[in-house]
UniProtKB/TrEMBL annotation:
GO terms for cellular component: plasma membrane. One of its GO terms (molecular function) is antiporter activity. Belongs to the CTL (choline transporter-like) family. It catalyses: choline(out) + n H(+)(in) = choline(in) + n H(+)(out). It is a multi-pass membrane protein. This is Choline transporter-like protein. It comes from Hypocryptadius cinnamomeus. Keywords: Antiport, Cell membrane, Glycoprotein, Membrane, Transmembrane, Transmembrane helix, Transport.
């Protein structure tokens, strides 16, 4: 087919001439947006290279395992921590300092250990060193690596934190040692003691430890709840899967029934709204008439001014008169819209029924969202892994952690090997040179932030490409259905796979182009959200107002681009042109049918939302009765749960997502059929020479000439 014959729109968007050879998605195509395709492939290769480089330099164990004051994580091989998997704090009492909240680091020496901890103050250990050397041999396991000088003065040892001031019975949690708190007769204790000596001879209360480990109880409680939730999932997972399977079957059933019930559901809702508003008008009139003659009811809103109690306004006739006028206006608007838009509403309902019929002929489309889900899951996994490896790339960076918040050396980088020889410890008593984070001075480490930004951008691009590929594939399959003159005889074999092959082979560049535009806007929105988060504490009202306006504008732009891209992909699937041309043609076509677009969009949104609520609500009610043992037949099969709401909420949310997946295919089907329908109206006139491809029901609604007989 000559490419010039396929052009449908002129420079000003006028309809192209009739092409008798056109039968839906063209097969004689060529590659579109080749430059963008090449750039997309190069970016993917670069993204893979970035992942490899991050994998070489990064070590996720630095995130999984806690890191000691020497920049070595617990359990690290080829170090003195190889067999020590638990992080031990020399003086956990310092963790109650406000410095912890500022630097997210406890200002005390931290080492790795893996032994049972008993209660020993350092002073007592040194005092009995000559008589009980076994105590020193035990205690020095908790000292800095290589320290073995019990004759060094206690003051110097505690000042330099060569050894902890004390060790107390602890238990590991999140790979860290925390005091083993317990309650005895309602009193908080550690090792059955309510007081202890802090290693400097001072008697301290156990509650001081509690403050130092502030929040641990909440974390422990959360851990307990988490374990119970995990147990609930472990014993109820198959019932959850059964619930999701029921949701899938209900979603399929709803899509099939839409062929017969779309009109009924919509008109029941519309007349229900009209009836409710009518009742509201009657009630307002009744209240207005009932208040007649009651003292004070004839006052105006202006007379009584602003009142915090809304009930005061309900005692005024003027209030009910205003309500009645507003409801009357809404009622009149709805009735007028139904009168003037009745045919367009009928067309929208007919297209919904046609969409149900199309899916019935191409059932494989219902399972394509699984492909999109897998592609997006791969993108998310690769992005997350790359981000973690990038974040853990680099060498240990040490900073000064001081007990005093006014220490001028606080947060400055330092060298742990030479720190004790500097004057920092003199000016800031108790200051420590401890590990802060992983970084470096090489060219690679300097651009870690840029790499993270690139990682996020390519991730957004790939996710949008996966969505675009799914939309274009489904559009091509449903367009094959619409442009089949004899349905289903003329529908091509394997329309979904054919459409997928065309999209990948010819239009990767166009899909990548559309995804690139959307990814740029989304990245800008992410940056704006980051700036907004950073500037929340600022007092500059103009800055906050400007950020709010920018966020709103880019949110609207993203929604508009998604709408344009979606319809552009439909035109690409049908005509095989580049992205810009397809977007322009789709835009002009929609503008010539703007009222139909609005009506169809709202009718479709309502029915699909109703379907999601019905599926999720129906399965949720069934799951509630099942997990609360209110179904006698299955009462013995219900597992014993800690929290019945865990599988219940999982089933409800999962059912909604399952329904959303199926209905997204249906929404794409309706949008595709609508564009094909608009094309059909502009291409053909229903004559024998130019017959319509639309269904007989759509033809009857339009009141056109009789459909030409379809060939057997």
């Amino acid at each position: 087919m000559d490419r010039d014959e396929e052009n449908y729109y002129g420079r000003h968007g006028e309809p192209r001439k009739f092409d008798p050879k056109f039968r839906g998605p063209i097969h004689n195509r060529h590659c579109t947006d080749i430059i963008c395709c090449v750039i997309f492939i190069v970016v993917i290769l670069g993204y893979i290279a970035l992942g490899v480089v991050a994998w070489v330099h990064g070590d996720p164990r630095k995130v999984i395992y806690p890191t000691d004051s020497y920049g070595q994580f617990c359990g690290q091989r080829d170090t003195h921590n190889e067999n020590k998997t638990i992080l031990f704090y020399f003086n956990i009492l310092k963790c109650a300092s406000p410095v912890v909240l500022i630097n997210l680091q406890c200002p005390t020496t931290q080492v790795s250990e893996n032994v049972e901890i008993k209660y020993f103050p350092y002073i007592l250990v040194i005092a009995s060193y000559r008589y009980r050397p076994d105590q020193w041999n035990y205690f020095r396991q908790f000292c800095k690596p290589g320290f073995n000088n019990p004759r060094k003065s206690v003051a110097q040892v505690l000042r330099d934190e060569d050894c902890p001031s004390m060790i107390i019975p602890s238990r590991p949690f999140l790979k860290r040692c925390f005091p083993d708190f317990s309650t005895k007769n309602g009193v908080l204790t550690v090792a059955n003691q309510t007081t202890f000596k802090d290693g400097r001879g001072k008697t301290r209360n156990v509650t001081d430890l509690r403050e130092a480990a502030n929040g641990i109880n909440n974390v422990l409680d959360a851990r307990s709840v988490g374990m119970k939730i995990f147990e609930d999932y472990a014993i109820s997972w198959y019932w959850i899967l059964i619930g999701l399977f029921i949701a899938m079957m209900l979603s399929l059933l709803f899509l099939v029934l839409l062929r017969f019930t779309a009109g009924v559901l919509f008109w029941i809702f519309i007349f229900g709204v009209i009836g409710i508003i009518g009742y509201g008008i009657w009630h307002c009139y009744w209240e207005y008439d009932h208040l007649k003659g009651i003292p004070g009811s004839d006052l105006t809103v202006y007379d009584i001014g602003f009142q915090t109690d809304f009930k005061v306004y309900l005692q005024l006739r003027q209030t009910w008169l205003a309500f009645m006028i507003i409801l009357c206006g809404v009622e009149v608007i709805i009735i007028l819209m139904l009168i003037f838009l009745r045919n367009r509403i009928r067309i929208a309902i007919a297209l919904l029924k046609e969409g149900s019929r199309a899916i019935g002929y191409i059932m494989s489309t219902l399972f394509y969202p699984i492909v999109t889900f897998l592609l997006i899951a791969i993108c998310i996994s690769y992005w997350a892994v790359t981000a973690v490896f990038l974040a853990t790339s680099g060498e240990p960076v040490y900073k000064v952690m001081a007990n005093q918040t006014l220490c001028k050396y606080a947060n400055l980088t330092c060298d742990p090997e030479t720190f004790n020889t500097t004057n920092v410890t003199k000016l800031c008593p108790g200051a420590q040179c401890t590990f802060a984070f992983y970084g470096g001075e090489s060219l690679y480490h300097k651009y870690i932030f840029i790499f993270q930004l690139a990682n996020a951008f390519v991730f957004l691009w790939l996710v949008n490409f996966a969505i675009a590929l799914g939309q274009c594939t489904l559009a091509g399959a449903f367009a094959s259905y619409y442009w089949a003159y004899r349905k289903p005889a003329d529908i091509p074999l394997w329309p979904l796979f054919s459409s997928f092959g065309r999209a990948i082979r010819y239009h990767t560049g166009s899909l990548a182009f559309g995804a690139l535009i959307l990814a740029i806007v989304q990245l800008i929105r992410v940056i704006l959200e980051y700036l907004d988060h950073k500037l929340k504490g600022t007092q500059n009202s103009f800055t906050r107002f400007l950020l709010c306006c920018l966020k709103c504008c880019f949110w609207c732009l993203e929604k508009f681009l998604k709408f344009i891209n979606r319809n552009a992909y439909i035109m690409i699937a049908i005509y095989g042109k580049n992205f810009c041309t397809s977007a322009k043609e789709a835009f002009f076509l929609l503008m010539r049918n703007v009222v139909r677009v609005a009506v169809l969009d709202k009718v479709t949104d309502f029915l699909l939302f109703l379907g999601k609520i019905l599926v999720a609500g129906g399965v949720g009610v069934l799951a509630f009765f099942f997990f609360t043992q209110r179904i006698p037949v299955f009462a013995q099969e219900v597992p014993m749960l800690n929290y019945y709401w865990v599988p219940l909420l999982t089933v409800i949310i999962g059912s909604y997502l399952v329904a959303h997946g199926f209905f997204s295919v249906y929404a794409m089907c309706v949008d595709t059929l609508f564009l094909c329908f608009c094309e059909d109206l502009e291409r053909n006139d229903g004559s024998t020479a130019k017959p319509y491809f639309m269904s007989a029901s759509l033809h009857r609604i339009l009141g056109k000439k009789k459909l030409s007989p379809k060939k057997a």
